[in-house]
User: Which sequence fits this backbone?
């Protein structure tokens, strides 16, 4: 009588075991294909959907054939209620459709997927969406575990507020990491922290969650600008053509001063909320321009570029900061009132580099908003002469990409091969210097048939093809950059007292040529105390000004003013 139930049990269990074995076999087969998963958090945020943001970058990388090169990539989006899959689909397609139309009109671009189908609709077919009620990273990661089981590598892209970096890193490691296999990689957007101590806490949260240091990739899209990505190669081609018969070494022997410039034509234009409490030094110097400086000064024959950049940063110190704020910035929406410091929108950071090559050479990083011109350059000023060597580093933003000289005779005008733009190793392009009487272009990427992928596209491609050194910042570099800008005190550059930050107007306000701004006699402290003095008249005049409300009619604790 007992045999029948046993037989029935075997009949029930055996098919399940066979199914489990078949599933395991299928999983191993899929793993053998080395297909990767790209887990995207923050997929409906501003940075994800903005022009030239993350979605467009990942799509352009897909269209380049990057997904095919690595054996395939599936995108998994992790979202929370009340977001919906339809919302994501609509927003992403709305961003990608005009971008795709533009790509098709771009000379030099072509669809390189194996299927030959680069439409946004085809791209969207590889996207899975997981929507979770609430914000429990561990619970959502556990729910996603079966869908991520087949992949060889899981790359988690955190385009979310930094306070969740640690919890999502831990959730990913606990549920998807597979122990010593370390198949989870974490990519984090910059700025990484608001200061040195904050950055250390973020880093400790990620590493403490079990992410190996080599699996943490700090995003800096500036490293994927074509000219920056190839800056050391271009320097190696150009610098010898300016040194007289090898009698001088590039550095303090040949260069009087170095200036890295990033100027933006307009101000924040309604985006002031993201800039509140940040300022230009955090926004641009720590996040991006110190990386550019390191690439501009590191030895061109360095085999480990990350180590070479770090060596430069570790010897760099601030000597002074000159700071300004454009007139009208304080009328921006979503600004708070902080009487102890001002948010600078223009900074000139004076630096020294205590190395044998660059000791004694003044170095300046100049960056600002509402400058009346868009300018991304690195300038080397000739020692003992009038010459200037300029690297135009913002081709994707300014339309200018090249290396030119002014009043610096070229010793070798023969043609040469320079790096070509594109994804991966795209070969070279022949360049012939056009320099006359010491002035002109040594190389110029003005050929309209050349295709320059957007920085986020090259970043995404590097992330997916595991070329981490080219497009990402190591934490030691990030930390060294925070040490530099913190200087002797945050008051020096990061959070200057309002009385030390002068107000300026754009160049056309006083008839100057861009980017020579019009400095005013007032400081931000004057604006706080006079323009926004708390009076019944100002209550009416500034009824819709966020900063005035925070200063004169602060909300109860925990509430936010939205004007």
Assistant:
């Amino acid at each position: 009588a007992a045999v029948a139930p046993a037989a029935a049990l075997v009949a029930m269990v055996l098919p399940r075991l066979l199914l489990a074995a078949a599933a395991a076999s299928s999983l191993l087969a899929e793993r053998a294909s080395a297909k990767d998963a790209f887990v995207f958090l923050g997929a409906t945020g501003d940075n994800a959907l903005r022009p030239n943001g993350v979605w467009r970058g990942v799509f352009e990388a897909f269209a380049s054939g990057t997904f095919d090169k690595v054996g395939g990539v599936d995108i998994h989006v992790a979202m929370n209620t009340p977001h919906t899959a339809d919302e994501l689909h609509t927003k992403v397609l709305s961003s990608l459709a005009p971008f795709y139309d533009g790509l098709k009109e771009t000379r030099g671009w072509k669809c390189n997927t194996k299927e030959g189908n680069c439409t946004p609709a085809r791209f969207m077919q590889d996207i899975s969406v997981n929507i979770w009620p609430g914000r429990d990273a561990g619970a959502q990661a556990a729910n996603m575990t079966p869908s991520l089981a087949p992949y060889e590598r899981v790359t988690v892209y955190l385009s979310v507020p930094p306070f969740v970096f640690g919890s999502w890193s831990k959730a990913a490691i606990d549920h998807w990491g597979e122990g010593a296999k370390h198949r989870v990689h974490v990519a984090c957007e910059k700025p990484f922290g608001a200061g040195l101590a904050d950055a250390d806490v973020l880093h400790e949260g990620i590493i403490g969650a079990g992410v190996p240091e080599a699996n943490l990739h700090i995003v800096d899209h500036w490293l994927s600008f074509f000219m920056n990505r190839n800056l050391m190669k271009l320097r190696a081609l150009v610098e010898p053509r300016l040194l007289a018969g090898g009698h001088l070494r590039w550095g303090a022997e040949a260069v009087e001063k170095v200036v890295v410039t990033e100027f933006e034509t307009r101000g924040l234009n309604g985006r002031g909320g993201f800039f509140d409490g940040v300022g230009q030094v955090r926004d641009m110097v720590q996040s991006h321009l110190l990386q550019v400086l390191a690439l501009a000064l590191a030895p061109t024959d360095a085999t480990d570029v990350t180590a070479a950049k770090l060596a430069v940063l570790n010897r760099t110190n601030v000597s002074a900061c000159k700071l300004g704020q454009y007139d009208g910035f304080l009328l921006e929406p979503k600004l708070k009132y902080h009487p102890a410091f001002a948010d600078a929108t223009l900074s000139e950071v004076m630096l020294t580099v205590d190395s044998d090559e660059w000791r004694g050479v003044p170095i300046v990083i100049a960056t600002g908003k509402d400058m009346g011109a868009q300018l991304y350059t690195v300038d080397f000023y000739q020692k003992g002469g009038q010459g200037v060597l300029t690297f135009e580093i913002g081709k994707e933003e300014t339309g200018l990409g090249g290396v030119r000289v002014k009043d610096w005779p070229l010793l070798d005008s023969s043609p040469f091969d320079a790096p070509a733009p594109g994804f991966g190793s795209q070969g070279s392009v022949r360049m012939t210097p056009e320099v006359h009487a010491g002035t002109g272009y040594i190389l110029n990427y003005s050929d309209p048939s050349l295709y320059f992928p957007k920085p986020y596209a090259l970043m995404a491609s590097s992330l997916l093809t595991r070329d981490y050194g080219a497009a990402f910042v190591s934490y030691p570099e990030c930390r060294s950059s925070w040490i530099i800008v913190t200087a002797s005190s945050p008051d020096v550059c990061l959070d200057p007292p309002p009385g030390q930050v002068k107000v300026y107007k754009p160049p056309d306000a006083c008839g100057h040529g861009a980017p020579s701004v019009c400095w005013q006699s007032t400081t931000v402290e004057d604006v706080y105390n006079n323009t926004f003095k708390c009076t019944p008249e100002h209550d009416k005049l500034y009824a819709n000004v966020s900063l005035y409300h925070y200063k004169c009619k602060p909300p109860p604790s925990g509430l936010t003013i939205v004007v």
In short: Confidence is low (pLDDT under 50) at residues 1-32. The first helix runs from residue 3 to 32.
